[in-house]
Amino acid sequence: MITHLDKQGNPTMVDVTEKSVTHRTAIARSIVLLPEEVLAHLTDGDLQTKKGSVFQIAIIAGIMAAKKTGELIPLCHPLGLDNCNITISLNAKQEVVIDCTASITAKTGVEMEALVGASIAALTVYDMCKAMSHDIVIKETKLIEKTGGKRDFKRA
Predict the structure, then answer these.
(1) Is 13 in a helix, a strand, or coil?
(2) How many CB atoms lie within 10 A of CB 69?
(3) 20 to 30 Å CA-CA from 90: which of 38, 39, 69, 98?
(4) How confident is the model at residue 1 (pLDDT cuts 50, 70, 90)?
(5) Domains of the chain, with CATH numbers?
(6) What share of the chain is helix, strand, coil (3-state, %, to 5)?
(7) Are 143 and 115 in contact, with CB atoms under 8 Å apart?
(8) Average pLDDT over residues 2-31
(9) pTM score over 0.90
(10) pLDDT tens, 86-95?
(11) What is the pLDDT of residue 44?
(12) Using CA atoms in the order 70, 75, 77, 83, what is the torsion angle rounded to 10 degrees?
């Protein structure tokens, strides 16, 4: 069922009037592949560039973006997040793993906020490192888990 269309097929915001207020969380992940010439700048778990600390700035950008999701995605409810947390690490394959966890107590979920936060953090990593290489690849962005709505979801 497509929820953003009315009976006439016109775009509409989902009516959450009758939904219950519950604690809702969502975790999204973006994976960024960095070429060796960029990874060579890795120091103490972060990349240092002329623009500053890449991961620290990406975390701030991701949180700021998650807070503005309702302004960026048409028909998305504007939400005042209770919390947003972004972690950035390297996995065993030397890929940058960006996890964004968003939470709220509300009538609607925060999947889009988590996805936007992870995506913008990944784009910020790209932006800050592109002077070193254009071979950076944002491999994927996906929902990992959501709780508190009509049905919970957890990716295996």
Answers:
(1) coil
(2) 23
(3) 69
(4) low
(5) 22-148 (3.30.70.640)
(6) 25, 35, 40
(7) yes
(8) 88
(9) yes
(10) 999 999 999 9
(11) 83
(12) -40
